[in-house]
Amino acid sequence: MDTDNAKGTIIEDSFLAAFLSVRNLKIRPIKQSSCKIVWSVQGDVEKAYNDLLDDIPVPAATFIRHLKDIRNQIYLLRSA
User: Fold this and answer.
1) Which residues of the chain have pLDDT under 70?
2) Which of 21, 71, 72, 78 could make an SS bond with 66 (beta carbons 3.0 to 4.6 A apart)?
3) What pLDDT is stored for residue 32 in this prediction?
4) Cβ–Cβ under 8 Å, residues 39 and 30
């Protein structure tokens, strides 16, 4: 995770981005190069990350839906 106040926290892991999306943080995809997509996250990333480490329950169907959305963002930005 990389923190930049102007862009928010930069996340490179799609699974972490999906989890943060489930936690209702604002996720925005950014195309860094021709094949690398990262996400800018606005909100309390540290608290959500600690929730992940504390192994809080997350409904599987909800996580999978958010992960599919993240992966769709990857494919759309790479094809653009």
Assistant:
1) 1-7
2) 21
3) 87
4) yes
In sequence order, which ranges of the chain are alpha helices (DSSP H)? 14-22, 45-53, 60-79
Q: Residue 8 has what pLDDT?
A: 85
21 CB neighbour count, 10 Å cutoff: 21
pTM of the complete model: 0.85
CA atoms within 13 A on the CB side of 20: 28
Question: Helix 60-79 to helix 14-22 angle, to the nearest 10 degrees?
Answer: 130
Burial of 37 (0-12, 13-18, 19+ CB in 10 A): buried
The per-residue pLDDT of the chain, averaged, comes to: 89
**pLDDT the model gives residue 3:** 57
Residue 2 and residue 75: Cα distance in Å, rounded? 23
CA-CA distance, 52 to 16, in Å (whole number)?
9
Residues in contact with 34: Cβ distance below 8 Å, sequence separation at least 6, in sequence order: 78
